[in-house]
């Protein structure tokens, strides 16, 4: 264990010793975001975010180019009058923000009244000029003034989640406890799963949303993702919410092969099943529940314009831009074509990642990226 890791491990163990087992949500919050120690709170200083996983903006600039094309269509649909703002949540190292603003500026599609704002309290990326960094409170205020696009890529999968397991007598929450003994690997305390029956009101609410599950089926629940979508929908005056992430519809999430849930740790590109390993030095993520996001949006006045996968979304946009026509003529164009292939690869990024687009009115559709390119 490194020094930081040992300190964070000790802080979390101390909290559990003081007040008993904590929810996994609380554990994940500290493991990822503890000031000065958590994975994202130190990512920039340690080795640059993104090193433990491959993100679409880092595969190639074509990703930002295609998204910029979709956003430009959104801006035109909203009408040219008034201010236009793009607000990116979980902007991390700003790869996407920089890519999109560069493309829009090159295309002169960036009127003086437009702004690109980033919300990421944990990003250590240096921001100068465009994009600007804002707090969530400021972002919500801006969303109430004029047309906006709320954009996120792999943001919701990084929000802390609760872990649940179904048993014959109902739903239980998998909390985090500590144990001292030989399993602790000589490090003193080790974290262990501790099950607790879920509160009746929460269990009743969840039972309405999920199918009948077999004994021992585990899954995650993200009240924070749902609440975020509710806040965005309530604040957004006119515009779109574009969410790119890996996740499932409910009818996929509760299949027998997913009975151990979707939570994973990532360390240096390797998937770690041990959620309690390398606390603060490994990323923790879980698949988002797109039905939850759609329902939360509808509850706050957002209409779902469509949910597709990254392969269809980017292929439709590339077709619209004429990006796939002819042989690439230069080494740069070949690189772009290869990056595009990686981004749309079936069984890889192309189908693992989904794209959800919601809007404040159904009249704001249809959008180029949501037209299925494989159906005439
Ligand atoms: C998996 S990273 C994705 C980074 C980037 N979007 C990309 O695609 O490379 C998730 C990001 O969400 C940020 N984040 C976590 N909680 C947040 C919150 N409440 N508001 C805004 N950003 C948050 C983290 O700091 C982290 O940079």
Keywords:
binds S-adenosylmethionine; single chain; five-stranded antiparallel β-sheet; globular; eight-stranded mixed β-sheet; 38% helix; Rossmann fold
Provide a short characterization of the protein structure:
The chain is α/β, with parallel strands linked by helices and 376 residues long.
Named CATH topology of the largest domain: Rossmann fold
Number of domains: 2
Low-confidence blocks of residues = 46-50
Nearest-integer average pLDDT: 92
Spatial shape: globular
Distance between the termini: 56 Å
Strand content: 15-25%
String of helices and strands? HEHHHHEHEEHEEEEHEHEHEEEEHEHHHE
Structure summary, number of beta strands = 16
Which structural category fits the helices and strands?
alpha/beta
The number of helical segments is: 14
In CATH's first tier, which class of the largest domain applies?
Alpha Beta
Question: Which range best describes the helical content: under 10%, 10-25%, 25-40%, 40-55%, 55-70% or over 70%?
Answer: 25-40%
Rg value = 21 Å
CATH architecture of the largest domain: 3-Layer(aba) Sandwich
């Amino acid at each position: 264990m490194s020094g930081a890791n040992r300190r964070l491990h000790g802080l979390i163990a101390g909290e559990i010793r003081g007040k008993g087992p904590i929810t996994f949500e609380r554990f994940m919050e500290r493991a990822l975001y503890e000031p000065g120690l958590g994975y994202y709170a130190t990512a920039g200083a340690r080795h640059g975010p993104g090193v433990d996983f491959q993100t679409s903006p880092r595969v190639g600039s074509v990703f930002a180019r295609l998204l910029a094309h979709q956003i430009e269509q959104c801006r035109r649909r909203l009408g040219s009058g008034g201010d236009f703002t793009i607000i990116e949540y979980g902007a991390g190292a700003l790869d996407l923000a920089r890519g999109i603003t560069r493309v829009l500026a090159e295309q002169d599609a960036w009127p003086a009244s437009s702004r690109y704002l980033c919300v990421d309290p944990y990003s250590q990326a240096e921001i100068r000029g465009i994009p600007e960094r804002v707090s969530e409170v400021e972002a919500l205020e801006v969303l109430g003034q004029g047309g906006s696009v709320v954009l996120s890529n792999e943001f919701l999968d990084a929000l802390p989640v609760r872990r649940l397991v179904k048993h014959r007598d109902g739903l239980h929450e998998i909390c985090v406890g500590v144990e001292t003994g030989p399993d602790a690997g000589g490090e003193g305390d080790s974290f262990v799963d501790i099950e607790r029956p879920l509160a009746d009101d929460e269990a009743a609410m969840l039972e309405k949303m999920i199918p009948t599950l077999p004994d021992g089926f585990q899954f995650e629940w993200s009240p924070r993702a749902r609440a975020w979508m509710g806040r965005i929908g309530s604040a957004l005056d006119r515009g779109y919410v574009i969410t790119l992430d890996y996740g499932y519809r409910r009818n996929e999430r509760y299949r027998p092969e997913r009975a151990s849930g979707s939570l994973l740790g990532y360390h240096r590109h390797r998937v770690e099943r041990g959620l309690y390993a390398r606390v603060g030095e490994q990323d923790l993520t879980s698949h988002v529940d797109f039905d939850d996001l759609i329902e939360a949006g509808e509850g706050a006045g957002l209409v779902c314009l469509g949910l597709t996968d990254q392969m269809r979304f980017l292929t439709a946009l590339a077709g619209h831009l004429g990006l796939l026509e002819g042989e690439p003529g230069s080494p740069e164009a070949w690189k772009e074509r290869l990056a595009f292939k990686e981004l749309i690869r079936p069984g890889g990024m192309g189908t693992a990642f989904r794209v959800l687009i919601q809007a404040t009115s159904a009249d704001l559709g249809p959008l180029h990226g949501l037209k299925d390119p494989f159906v005439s």
